[in-house]
Specification:
Pfam family, one: MLTR_LBD
CATH class of the largest domain: Alpha Beta
Number of domains: 2
Helix content: 40-55%
Strand order of the largest sheet: 2-1-7-6-3
GO molecular function: DNA binding
Shape: elongated
Protein name: Transcriptional regulator
Number of strands: 7
Radius of gyration: 21 Å
CATH architecture of the largest domain: 2-Layer Sandwich
Structural class: alpha+beta
Number of helices: 15
């Protein structure tokens, strides 16, 4: 984690974000002429981005180095356009500026509560046979119905306090074969975690998980450096499940209001379809081998 500790302030994190995304935009994508000779910069040069955003080179350099942390909204929008940011990335850039300028305080003294409300647990049970689960802001599985855990092949073999979606995607041997678009799964979970970490770099729950994954997964480390903060909240996902075969259920992710970052994720399929039948089988097999509550042993 030593290389990330230097990013412990909003200003430096702002610079890290700008540098990572500057390196991803080519001159051709930005509509700039490419001169002769070899470019040492993988993406745009600082002076090129400054010109595109309509700011001085000196001002932009100070932004990247964390010496300037309070650009105006118009400058932020101009940088977003020049960097060709996705709306989610644009919103994150604005948030970094707010944090870096000290206009919003982030409380990291206490860890988020891990308790799942009884009403939410009742919803999990009544959604069966549709797989559903509740995750923490760091994507620990806090509660689930039988199919919700069984969907992640092999996850039930891990102790309850190790069941984490990011950890599973990167470190569980079954994950590479389970997800049809494994690479996209990697990008999505890293994007959500990266966005949160950049706003609370000293939070214990985040630093512990990020440190573990940086040490154990080269794929995680590479994606972490890219600083992609996009993720998905709904759609469909194809699984190659060792128990029930191939299935492509729809899914919806929802923020649980009144909690510290908990989210509710549910998968579904039309009754009478093969995918629905396979979700029923997952639910039945999960119920037969009902795991201990994921909340037990979490700390």
């Amino acid at each position: 984690m030593a290389r990330e500790r230097q990013n412990g302030t909003g200003g430096t994190e702002l610079g890290t974000f700008l540098r990572a995304h500057r390196n991803r935009v080519t001159p051709e994508e930005a509509g700039l002429p490419v001169g002769p000779g070899l470019r040492r910069t993988p993406g745009l040069r600082r002076e090129e981005l400054a010109t595109l955003a309509g700011v001085s080179v000196d001002y932009y350099v100070r932004l990247e180095r964390g010496k300037e942390t309070n650009p105006s909204p118009s400058v932020v929008d101009a940088l977003a356009r020049a960097l060709r940011l996705h709306p989610a990335e644009h919103a994150h850039l604005r948030e970094l500026v707010v944090r870096g300028a000290g206009r919003a305080a982030v409380e990291t003294d206490s860890l988020p509560a891990r308790t799942v409300r009884p009403g939410t647990e009742l919803l999990l049970e009544n959604l069966r046979p549709f797989p559903a689960y509740v995750i923490s802001r760091t994507m620990d599985i806090l509660a689930c119905n039988p199919g919700g855990l069984r969907l992640f092949a092999g996850m039930a073999d891990w102790p309850a306090n190790r069941r984490n979606v990011v950890r599973y995607v990167f470190l569980h041997p079954a994950a590479t074969k389970l997800f049809d678009d494994w690479d996209e799964q990697l990008r999505a979970v890293v994007g959500r975690l990266r966005a949160l970490y950049s706003l609370e770099p000293d939070a214990a729950d985040l630093t512990e998980l990020v440190g573990e994954l940086l040490d154990k997964s080269p794929e995680f480390a590479d994606l972490w450096e890219r600083y992609d903060v996009r993720w998905h909240t709904h759609g469909s996902k194809t699984f190659h499940h060792p128990e029930v075969g191939d299935l492509t259920p729809g899914y919806q992710s929802m923020q649980l209001e009144g909690t510290q970052g908990q989210r509710f994720i549910a998968y579904y399929a039309e009754p009478g379809t093969p995918d629905h039948d396979k979700l029923v089988l997952l639910d039945m097999s999960g119920a037969e081998q009902k795991p201990a509550s994921p909340v037990e042993g979490m700390h």
